[in-house]
């Protein structure tokens, strides 16, 4: 259960959020800050409110990683070392079928899928336009040995969602409702399916800013919320562990885990590791164990680089307030 703010706590963080009332771009939607599970700051912008649903874009990939963990916890998926074809027999004989799930989760599938290249055979826009996304995925050729190269793409996150559905025998959307959102107390949400009827593991998940914060708080607590172990602590630890150095690929992250990012922020000489989910436009779930903080941001700056820069600036302002108030542990 997420607690409410106190006036003393609010005073530490509210000024940092008020700064963005004057932002030149009218597409910031909301910021929620939790400290030890209590809302210590919350602000909405440009007509948004706590009940508004937002398409969090690729931050949904990080929720897909949680769904893989739930499938592993339920023994529907035996191991992330298993190949995709273990759970999706129709993929046998196709490049995607031979990829270990572990490499799917770290964007190292080896498939010829790269979302920054419109000509890439597995580019997300091509997949979204396909009349049969499953057939499209089966036709994506191999480019590299699995595990050898990081290439950000939505096709692999979609693959993870397909594996969850095939292994569980139900749609990922239905499983998420039963095993994730309901236990978290999240009642307002939407997760779109594609033309093949598959939940879109690559994104198109709609949540409120508070809902995003609730997911972040569960992750900060090792998969536990409302007195229940929703995702195993073992999976959360494995999911957040930095597995691939992506400093050369992403200016906003140092490393990549299982569809979650990691970056160490330097706040006035205090080094603070941050794990986060990230979506187009600046949609973020920042999890900061050293400061007992979660920062959720919704933003509609889709396709604009300033959205990512703005969200990181908001995070840094919140962390600066936390450091100044002595809320962050050092060492």
Automatic annotation (TrEMBL):
Pfam families, per database record: Beta-lactamase
Any idea which GO molecular function terms this record carries? hydrolase activity
Q: Does the keyword Cytoplasm apply?
A: no
Keywords, in A-Z order: Hydrolase
InterPro entries per the UniProt record, alphabetical: Beta-lactam-related, Beta-lactam/transpept-like, Diverse_Enzym_Activities
Q: Which SUPFAM superfamilies does UniProt cross-reference here?
A: beta-lactamase/transpeptidase-like
Beta-lactamase-related domain ranges (all copies): 31-317
Q: Which PANTHER family match?
A: BETA-LACTAMASE-RELATED, BETA-LACTAMASE-RELATED DOMAIN-CONTAINING PROTEIN
Record's protein name: Serine hydrolase
Which species is listed as the source? Sandarakinorhabdus fusca
